Amino acid sequence: MSTAHATAPARRDAVSWVGFGVAVAGLLVCAWACLTAWSAIVHGHPAYAILLAVTALVSAGAAWWTLRRRIRRGGWRRAGRIALIVLAAVWLGLTAWLRPYSAVEPALAAMHSGSGVSVAETPTEIVLTPQAVTDPVGVLFQPGALVDARAYAAVLRPLAEDGHTVVIVKQPLGIAFLALGALDRARADHPDVQRWVVGGHSLGGTVAAMEATGTEATGTEATGTEATGTEATGTESTGTAPVGGLLLYASYPASDLSSSLRVSVESVSGTRDGLATPEKIAASRADLPPDAQFTVITGASHAQFGDYGPQPGDNAPTISHDDARRQISAASLDFLDRIADR
After folding, report:
1. For the whole model, what pTM was predicted?
2. How far apart are CA 118 and CA 241, in angstroms?
3. CA-CA distance, 190 to 121, in Å (whole number)?
4. pLDDT 10s digits, 154-187
5. Closest of 149, 146, 167 to residue 103, by C-alpha
6. What is the DSSP letter of 284?
7. How far apart are CA 54 and CA 27, in angstroms?
8. CA atoms lying within 13 Å on the CB side of residue 28
9. Range list of H helices, the chain
10. 305 Ramachandran zone, left/alpha/beta (phi>0; psi -120 to 50)
11. Contact 141, 152 (CB under 8 A)
């Protein structure tokens, strides 16, 4: 009995110090994220900034409380503290994993208005608007997982220069599944757009495919806007412009859409992609409509579809970033021209 009482406080002290270490680690994770991705955090959706602020405050409070509290005996209390420490460690791991990939040049230069394009940025989106004649086909783009939305400004700016309104979504926590309502917001905010092409990179493309499948029937076939020729008046007033196309950057759908998806599809991929590999892209043909078109860029990697630096798991490209970007933009413009001519 005396031995148990002598050793119990030491075990509880050890748990307290572990808790203190996790609290300090929380402050370090927040500092690391801010130091390495500050620009992306400031220009991204506010959800991650709020997550960091809450984590930092809770970590600071937990560290102070751990040093100030009195040690109390009782096995259930120690078990509860251990459970909280484990949950906190998992939370910190998730917080670190959610740190975004920051945009780099030339995407940052493309974020400035000029050369026929106006650039507007809000906490939830980036809008590239043609300053002259606006084409009735607009583009809604979903970034890849954890990628700064600004990273796609350079590759998508040629579309705006060609007359298309381009909306780049800022996703909560950088996860496209948390931004599934972006198309509805874009329709309401841009009633002049008569038809939308939804697109995305990597996971963003997967979510774009879901948006295209879930909305094109009600926007087009159910209302009959294209068939009756009332697209301009019907969609402009109601804000329900139909989806006319799906643009995939190094991406593929999560399920078989070969029969349910009734819009034009363009898949642009790279032969050096280590994530959406050529084999995965080839397999996706069976999940897309038979008339889906595939553009394969020889030597392009996964990270070359945006400007955010190298990505873990990707392969080294064998073409320059500028060359890859030009080919991706050109394939996108060709696709939009086909949509506009329909």
Report:
1. 0.88
2. 22
3. 15
4. 999 999 999 999 999 999 999 999 999 999 999 9
5. 149
6. G
7. 11
8. 9
9. 2-43, 46-68, 75-97, 153-161, 182-189, 203-216, 225-228, 231-238, 278-283, 321-341
10. alpha
11. yes
Which of 164, 336, 169 lies closest to 247, judged by CA? 336
Residue 265: both structure tokens together: 């599809």
Cα 201 off chain centre by: 8
How far is it, in rounded angstroms, from Cα 331 to Cα 342?
17
Per-residue pLDDT of 228-250, as tens digits, reads 333 333 333 345 789 999 999 99
Cα–Cα distance between 193 and 235 in angstroms, integer? 8
- Residue 67 tokens, joined: 């040093």
Q: Residue 299 half-sphere exposure, CB side, CA atoms within 13 Å?
A: 9
The rounded distance, in Å, linking the Cα atoms of 30 and 218 is: 44
CA 216 to chain centre: 22
Q: Which two tokens stand for residue 340?
A: 């506009």
Q: Which residues contact 298 (CB under 8 A, 6 or more apart)?
A: 270, 271, 318, 319
23-32 pLDDT, tens digit per residue, is 999 999 999 9
Structure tokens, 54: 């809450």
How many C-beta atoms surround the C-beta of residue 290 within 10 A?
Answer: 8
Neighbours of 326 (CB within 10 A): 15
Integer CA distances (angstroms), 329 to 40, 106, 268, 271, 312, in order: 23, 14, 10, 17, 24
Q: Count the neighbouring beta carbons within 10 Å of the beta carbon of residue 53.
A: 12
Q: Do strands 264-270 and 293-297 pair parallel, antiparallel, or not at all (unpaired)?
A: parallel
Opening angle at CA 224, ends 221 and 227, nearest 5:
105
